[in-house]
Amino acid sequence: MNDQQRQQNYDDMVKRLSPKSEKPFSLLKAFVVGGLICTLGQGFKDLALQVLRLDQEGASLFCSFCLIFLSALLTGLGVYDRLGKFAGAGSIVPITGFANSIVSPAMEFKREGFVTGVGAKMFVVAGPVLVYGISTSVAVGLLYYVLGLLGG
Amino acid sequence: MQAKRYGRQSYALPSKPRVCSFASTAGKKEGEGPLQNSFDVVVQDDTLGEKSWEKAETRMLSDTVSLCLRKAGLREEDVDLFLGGDLLNQIVSAGFAARGLQIPFLGLYGACSTMAESLLLGSLLLDGGFAKRVVCATSSHFSTAERQYRFPLELGNQRPPSAQWTVTGAGATLLTCEPTHPIAVEAVTVGKVIDLKQNDENNMGAAMAPAAADTLLAHLRETGRRLEQYDRIVTGDLGRVGYRLFRELCKQEGLELGDRYTDCGCDIFAPEQGLQAGGSGCGCSAVTLNGHLFQQMLAGNIRRLLFMATGALLSPTTTLQGESIPSIAHAVSLEVVPCC
Question: So what's the ipTM on this one?
């Protein structure tokens, strides 16, 4: 048996004997928690529109601020990681997950100093999202502009 | 020369260096697991009152070594050599612990195989007559390992079911050349680095199982022994996935392990603790050996034990660069012998 065959056989054995994630249940948990976070966001927005009498744009910003604050607070209190363990993508995808991904390294690397620790490591998880998120939005914006010129 | 060598990887230790004393310190989660009564110390606060996780791990290792010596009624100056290592970059826990202990120090890196590696080298040095007493120790800490290998502690992510949980714990064994104690190291097998191209860092058991199987086969082949000559064969931290794979690999080679095989990674946490595939880290096999297993030997429940700690020799950089996970396992054969 050559090396490649041996590796292939072993790969098959690993696949056979490794446990699989419980997909349907995980999806349900992610759906419920993600949905609740979004509902909470909608609640903040309605509050801003109807009670604080902000305009649409202001209300959206208010909603983001509240969610980011809550997520940062819960991360600091050591609760958000437990929520993440339970809900998976349900608590990672909303803006609260993004806030968690910035606050958690900031907390973790405080001991390495405010410049070389917090400053340097704060975006270690969120960095790629920012780089490719912003790049994509610039690219799409340019495309939109060019298409607009062509379309008159 | 040939008299002490069984083969390319295995050595005999005719002087049978003894285990003079042993000590273990474990974290809170480990202290809630099935082996809770076997540890000398269970720390409830995993910072140990220190300012950083790294300091906490250093303290835990250093305290465990001191405790091990105290149990033997000895002091640091009575020990010729400290062999140890850990998982952190530049093995700082061991180096910093050695700074305080002031015992001549050789730092080792074998990832999670370090407990076996240090015992192996320590007993060779004793058998060679180069030292009278050697202390072998290693540690790991969940929080230092997480920040080095994975993500910040407070990041809300999920672990796949094959992932393992780094044990917070330290274990130390004091070996002596005097035949005053009943547990002896009588043979050792040095492992080869084996890589069957597994690259899932969330399934370390799968990466390490072939190394453990390779070392077991080499040990039996070179010493001419049969599996039945051991009451117990223990791997370090294959976890529940690696455990099944190791059994299967041995079966393919015609070895039916049966009840005599256990894994420290499976034993240290109960499945109900929700820690996926079980424990890992240098501390996993170190606290299990220097607590439960040695106690079982002293109680007469295990007469001959083959201890094989397994290590995954990767770094976060190699994983990001798409390399597979090379692994190693060293075997240390321990037996209960008459003593004076």
Answer: 0.89
